[in-house]
Specification:
Blueprint lengths: L1 H37 L2 H9 L2 H21 L3 H33 L11 H22 L2 H31 L4 H33 L8
Helix pairs in contact: 1-2, 1-3, 1-4, 1-5, 2-4, 3-4, 4-7, 5-6, 5-7, 6-7
């Protein structure tokens, strides 16, 4: 009975840390996009400096999970919970890195004016934030339907990214002087698209947790 309580306590700690990571990722993506829209390099540098926090949480998850496997010898779904925590932590840490990459673009744009209003990129980021929030929600609730919804949302992000690239190409063709900035803005679209992919990976992990089988939601 004592060992079961220790295992449950450890699983609860893993869940709490994953929820915290998800909350941080959602916030940093929103902050990075606001910094981009306002070309606020001060805010961007703050985002970059804070990146270490997500790395620390991921490391704590790895340490706790490894210790639980060594001392509690979990099996079946309990073992899957720990393995999923490792995978989700890796995806969330990478999502945070990609949001920080957006902030780094803002720093590189210091002193410039945006060549065109940002329309599709904020919409992409909004969907990616929702995916981050709902992927964690699907994990907490063990909700397979919500986890699978990530694939549909990811398709929306991909479609918007294609539109961003088309629009930027038109801008560059019209004014070759915009090529450098347009290239950086296209990177932002790619970063958001990758964040959505990682959220979809979390959805796959949730399906694996519940069913024991890992689907390919990115197909």
């Amino acid at each position: 009975m004592i060992r079961r309580k220790e295992l449950d306590d450890g699983l609860d700690q893993l869940k709490a840390m994953l929820i915290e990571m998800g909350t941080r990722v959602e916030k940093v993506l929103g902050d990075a996009m606001r910094a981009l829209e306002q070309l606020d390099t001060i805010a961007a540098r703050r985002i970059i400096a804070d990146d270490i926090k997500l790395n620390q949480i991921e490391e704590n998850i790895d340490l706790l999970g490894a210790r639980m496997i060594a001392t509690q010898q979990p099996v079946a779904k309990d073992l899957r919970r720990i393995l999923v925590a490792f995978k989700m932590a890796g995806d969330l840490e990478r999502m945070g890195d990609l949001a920080v990459d957006i902030a780094k673009v803002v720093v590189r744009l210091d002193g410039q004016t945006l060549v065109k209003p940002l329309i599709d990129l904020p919409q992409m980021a909004g969907i990616a934030q929702q995916m981050t929030r709902e992927s964690i929600q699907s994990y907490v609730q063990e909700n397979v339907n919500l986890a699978c919804k990530m694939a549909q949302d990811d398709d929306q992000v991909d479609a918007l990214f294609s539109q961003v690239i088309r629009d930027l190409y038109a801008v560059m063709m019209d004014n070759p002087k915009t090529i450098s900035q347009a290239g950086l803005i296209s990177f932002v679209g790619r970063y958001i698209e990758r964040i959505a992919d990682h959220a979809t990976n979390i959805g796959e992990s949730v399906v694996y947790l519940v069913t024991g089988k890992r689907p390919d939601l990115n197909a």
